[in-house]
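We modelled the chain as a single entity of 131 amino acids. Its sequence is:
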Amino acid sequence: MIGLQRTRSHSLRVVIVVLTLLFIAASLLSLITVANGDVVRGLIGLAIFIPLAWGLWTLNNAARIGTCVLLWYVAIIVPCGAINPFAAINDYGPNSPDVWTLVAYIYPCVALAVLCLHVLGKHKSEFRNKP
């Protein structure tokens, strides 16, 4: 563990491990996208998620900021898009689910994102500014 040994907080270690595993999974999905023929979209995903995973693991401040931007996107923009009545009409056809079903799909992701934002903000002094 290159950077993780320097942390004093167990909650920060757990959040970094979880986020790094999520970024590695997103990188693998991007690699599958490249293998399926959508090269540009897959390479963009790889260019985003691999540096974020490595940067979080080594406690780089730029990776923390990039991760916070992605987590704010999950916490604010994703619920607005999923609980949009027009998206429900277009995606689900005439028998669209009620709003509480959509909220039940989105709530765990938003709650996890807010928790990770809290821990990353609380322990920002643990991250280094220079690579």
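As a brief sanity check on the tokenised model: DSSP finds five helices and no strands in the chain. The mean pLDDT is 87.
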